[in-house]
Design goal:
Strand content: 5-15%
Distance between the termini: 54 Å
Bound molecules: pyridoxal-5'-phosphate
Number of strands: 12
Number of domains: 2
Radius of gyration: 22 Å
CATH architecture of the largest domain: 3-Layer(aba) Sandwich
Structural class: alpha/beta
Helix content: 25-40%
CATH class of the largest domain: Alpha Beta
CATH topology of the largest domain: Aspartate Aminotransferase, domain 2
Largest sheet: 7 strands, mixed
């Protein structure tokens, strides 16, 4: 970035942050699709490999298109905080998580986390890390006394892993309280900030060491690509251990997806304002509907975590879930009747996306197990889009009319 004055506004950083002037005067950083970079001399090759001279080497390690997206996200996650951070773009959110865990934990060490994480994260913990003898302690992290007792008594816990707000109940974890405790006992803290985005919540402000995003979601914003990011405040650690793991695991992002991500991030503030405004209207509508048993949204005063969300988030976000009284058949019938809103998993796109976890993502999980995580038969998950609000409400209303 080559501005002569500091950028003071969030969207100015979202638009200009991370950008480097193109040597051929292209307005947007081009998609650098080639696999390798040229050394002018043998000595230059040596100097790039030893780090004496900056410069690109091989596209699995990085390229200008990828650097721009990563640097923009680092600038947003540290906006107004005056702390350093380095971001590394990955092939997906899962790729970023894999690098996070394998850079920080070895056999015999443990993660402390809470119920109801993103499904892929839960499977990574149970199906991959467990086989590497990296165990996970799962507990209710709302209870800070309970969390402190565990942290105090189990020295093999190396990392506290948080997802807030979390799928599908929009449970929130008190970042200030929990990170404070983790630091007291010398643990590292990582936070999945996908649902909130850096516009709504900055875990680094509370002392988190790492943030990850599935940039596939709100940061891209248009459902056009898959990618993920890992950001850390220990720049030295990020530049050495984490960079090495990222390269060796082959979790590199591709330049086409990075280009789309960069363009998407530029409008994040205006998109989130619209998403959140629409979400509040949708939550109020569903909350008084006779077919709906319960709405999980922290913008509603009956959500148990409203105070925590208000403390650490700018707005309650655009994700919510609600329970239909008619259960499994009600959930499927409702989805089938939707006309404009889209039946799909994923989230954070311009259009409103709805899914029915009990018949799709969690079909293979026993009813008893599902209900432990709040996934009842009639639960619908909703990513509220940016369409004109009257059309979203109209579609939901007509789809609910047979319930
Ligand atoms: C989608 C998602 C992930 C995984 O990201 P991918 O880009 O699909 O690999 C992780 N955490 C949350 C909260 C997500 O929504």
């Amino acid at each position: 970035m080559e501005t002569k004055f500091p950028l003071t506004g969030w969207s100015s950083v979202a638009i200009h942050g991370g950008h480097q002037k193109d040597p051929r005067h292209a307005h947007l950083t081009p998609i650098y699709a080639g696999s390798t970079y040229v050394f002018d001399t043998a000595e230059q090759g040596m100097n790039r490999f030893t780090g004496k001279e900056p410069g690109y080497i091989y596209a699995r390690f990085g390229s200008p298109t990828i650097t721009e997206a990563a640097d923009k996200i680092a600038a947003l996650e540290t906006f107004g905080l005056n702390i350093p951070a380095k971001a590394i773009l990955h092939a997906s959110g899962m790729g970023a998580l894999t690098t996070l865990f394998l850079s920080n934990l070895k056999a015999g060490e443990k993660i402390l986390t809470h119920f109801s994480l993103y499904g892929g994260t839960e499977e990574l913990i149970h199906r991959v890390l467990k086989d590497l003898n990296i165990e996970t302690v799962i507990t209710d992290l709302h209870d800070l006394n309970n969390a402190e007792a565990i942290l105090k008594n189990d020295p093999s816990i190396r990392m506290v892993y948080l997802e807030t707000p979390a799928n599908p109940t929009l449970q929130c974890i008190d970042l200030e309280g929990l990170i404070g405790l983790a630091k007291k006992y010398g643990k590292k803290v990582a936070c999945d900030n996908t649902f909130a985005t850096p516009y709504l919540q900055q875990p680094f402000a509370f002392g988190a060491d790492f943030i990850m995003h599935s940039t596939t979601k709100f940061l891209n914003g248009h459902g056009t690509a898959i990618s993920g990011v890992l950001i850390g405040t220990d720049v030295e650690f990020m530049s050495t251990i984490v960079t090495k793991k990222h390269r060796l695991l082959g979790a590199n992002a591709n330049p086409f997806d990075a280009f789309l991500l960069t363009q998407g991030i530029k409008t994040l503030e205006v998109r989130m304002e619209r998403h959140c405004h629409n979400a509040m209207e949708v939550a109020n509508f569903l909350d008084t509907h006779t077919a709906v048993a319960k709405v999980n949204y922290t913008g509603l005063s009956h959500h148990p975590d409203q105070a925590i969300a208000n403390k650490q988030m700018r707005h309650p976000g655009a994700m919510m879930s609600f329970e239909l009284k008619k259960g499994m058949s009600g959930g499927m019938e409702f989805l089938n009747r939707l006309q404009m809103c889209v039946r799909a998993v994923s989230l954070g796109t311009c259009d409103t996306l709805l899914s029915h976890p009990a018949s799709t993502t969690h079909f293979g999980v026993s009813k008893e197990e599902r209900e432990k995580y709040g996934i009842t038969d009639g639960l619908i998950r909703l990513s509220v889009g940016m369409e004109s609000i009257q059309d979203i409400l109209h579609d939901l209303d007509q789809a609910l009319s047979t319930q």
